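Repro:
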Amino acid sequence: VHLKEEEKEYTDKTRISSIIRKYSNFVSFPIMVCGEKANQVTALWKEPKKNVTAEQYEEFYKFIANVEEAPLFHLHTSAEAPIQFYSILYCPAVNYESVILKKLEHGIQLYCNKILIQADCKALLPEYLRFIRGVVDSSDIPLNISRETFQDNRVIQKMKSILIRQVLGLLQDIAKNDKEKYETFWKQFGRILKEGVHFDFENREAIAQLMRFNSSQCKDAGELVSLREYTERMKPEQKEIYYITAVSRDTIEKSPHLEIFRKKGVEVLYLTDPNDEFLLSGLGEFEKRPIRSADQANIDVLKDADKGIVDTSSEPQNYEVIFKHLLKTMKVCLADKVTDVTESHRLSESPCCLVSPDTSPSVHVQKLIHMMDKNYQMPKKIMEINRKNKMIQNMARMNEIPDNQQIVGKIITQLYENALMQDGVVFDPTAMVPRVNELLEELTNAKLGEGKKIII
């Protein structure tokens, strides 16, 4: 054998042993280098599951993943038809993407009869399962397969389909039988797994069943609920699944949009992950039930909310007339800001709120679009007014006095911007502050009996 001068490294015992350990470490027969055995590890994936101990699984994971901690769980499977392969897949205990704050390269070690073909085969699992580590071995794959042909190889694609179903099936079993372990998994890898809803239409339903959210029925922000648990708790007359989005549970629970849901005892999913709303809007429905944002105008929970006997005992005299007059005044004042001003059937305490027309994305999605495109114009909303609110009743009475029109206009504008702030939107705080100061000045003058008297 003659070697070029630059290839003399292949005469070195250490270099040859390292190559053997990388590509042929698991072959059944011993490979000797200078009288010493170079391959040391048993091909655990070809052993019957009943013969493998928990300690062996753990040690094997540490070996192939080059880590110290034990895996969260493993999946040891084999398939005989239509193709034959053996595999051991592991889920790490830690999401390293959240540690290093960037997307990690992924890949499964692919073998053919215990000979390594590719150390990081990305074609065997989709991006949304990139956290999975492990080994797949198939004699149906040619040893000389090239990286360029992996994506088009029918054997690879068939194995990928089987592996996806096996991993999702195991996750469903864990979610059903070991809720604590699954919640640990979800908090680590849920954000990655959710990507599958957008990219894997074939398995979208299975992934949807694995998703977890906080909700109005949960005791705190740490408790989670599945979409199936939500639907099982739905009231007989409830036809839709509802969600609301904000930066935290505390912020969500202060939203006026929840008042009708609390009143009717209807559960609402709390979305605090910025991607969750895109995920649910992409899903569209779950088990044939539409998924709707709580801030949309014509949601099913509002049906019949305006029917029945209306208690008018606490309303001012001739209130029906002056309330309608106030709505007209507000429409004129906010003509360039909202599409309409209507009486609310969702509010029981708050004076007002802004709702999205059915064809518009929710305010949270609009904010995300605006962050990416500063030229994006957020569509106008509908402003709903609570006729039972004491401040609204006072405004309606003030609005009947011509001398009060200026301050009523300021209050209307401030109510609109208050509603925007409740939705997490503030366009021009520098214009709001002077108006608030003017209103405070009017209030202090009125309390002191100075300045212009406000008659209500």
